[in-house]
Amino acid sequence: MLLIALGAISWLVFHTNRLALVRGPTVRNSTLARSGLGRSLAALRGWVVLGDGHFRTERSLAWQKEIRPAFIELDRLSGKWTVAEHVHHLHRAQRLLDDLEEREWWTQDVARRPGNEPARALYSKEIEPTVRRMQDAITRMIEDEGEAVAEDRHLDRLRHMADFRFHLIKSQSKTLDFVNDGNTDTETEIRSALNRLVRSISVLMDLRIVLPATLPDRLSWMNDKLAAYRRLTEELITYRQRRDWNRAQYLLSEKVNPIARELGTLLETLSEAQDTLMAADANVVTTRLATVIIVLCILIVSMAITAYGLSISSAAKLTDPIHFLVAATRDMAVGHLKIHIPIRSADELGQLTDSFNRMRRALAEATRDVDMAYNRLTSLVECAVDAIITIDARGIIESVNDAAWQLFGYSRDELVGHNVKLLVPSPDRERHDDCIKAFVRTGEAKIIGIGREVIAIKKDGRHFPVHLSISEARVEDAQFFTGIVYDLTDRKALEKELEDRAEELSRSNDDLQQFAYVASHDLQEPLRAVSGFTQ
Predict the structure, then answer these.
(1) 218 in helix, strand or coil?
(2) What tens digit of pLDDT does each residue of 468-487 get?
């Protein structure tokens, strides 16, 4: 039964790996390739319509980041596919992909060439220059005619010339609109404007016998240019009405899109087929897994029954010593370290009992040593003349000796568990917690390990000078600080008294010097008088 379970588990591992390493990645990369194709086509369409260089970059990235990597991964995974038809689909898709890439590149290149729109190229190279020359000519004719005598025939010619120029400009504008939109209504307006031009030039040609000498030649030239203009316009309309009036858009719709659709269909078919196989494998794995679970449950129950029978047979020999050992362990856990367990056998239980006794003796000795050390340390701290205060990394007081709580006027309970800043006067009190946090965070010691004089505050609010020395200690992950506080009140009073006496002696010395000066002066005056009499 165990062998059956192991075989079933091996089978499950194989099929699960196939799901995770073949089926899933195939579906994922097929979807990635389809997404990349859509992104590439959208970018190519944007480039053809708008000409924004961003779309070229977007199309290139779609091929580099999505389409090609996805097909490389699909080609690698195809070696593990179980259906030959799917491999044939992939090979067909790869050929279509190469063809599509070439046609997209071709369309992208054609889109910005001058010959991409023959109608627009004809307008720019032929029609627009022709119309410009005709406009210049009719404008000069109107200016020359305007300088003539204002007679009825001159006004009639001017009206026809102005009408010709207006419809010439209108036809040019409508021609450009037709190049952009290809609207049939715009085509009708173009033809209407051309007919008006023909009628206007015809009227002017009929008036040649009454025209000045230079105008007939100009009108003949204008008539010839109008004929060329009409021919070029008809040619432009023909170009614009063709399906490939925009060659890049024609290539996109007729050459690129069909291949892209076929390629997308192949990828979708491949993805759906692999998805179906993945679902089938998942169902099989689920069914087999249920069978394996049942077999394992039967195996576990059988093993439990066997183990229970074996345990019953040997329980009598093991129960009493183990129970006794458990009871002794519990007693030792609550501090009874003098219990000795007798060794009743030489087997594993006897060895375990002997090890327990040795451990108990070692633990008792260690506990005794720790208690002695703790008592000794506690006595030293409590008997110290100076105040000793221990705080944690948050500034909370952990312990104080007798000298500490007596010095500050608090009871021990009033200090332990409270923040040490209650012993610090303002404004240092407000900055005290930040100083501790800064040291804990950076490790930069400003007062740690350095003794200095500071001002402390008693419970009754009195300030008094102290000498403070702080040291840092670590126990496992815990951080503590110990401060030794020495009251400087008496010393400061003595220093003040000495300073006052020194100042008094200084004043006395100044008085003596003043007296000596006055006495010297008073004695020198009689001596000078005596010396004068003597001389």
Answers:
(1) helix
(2) 888 887 777 778 888 888 88
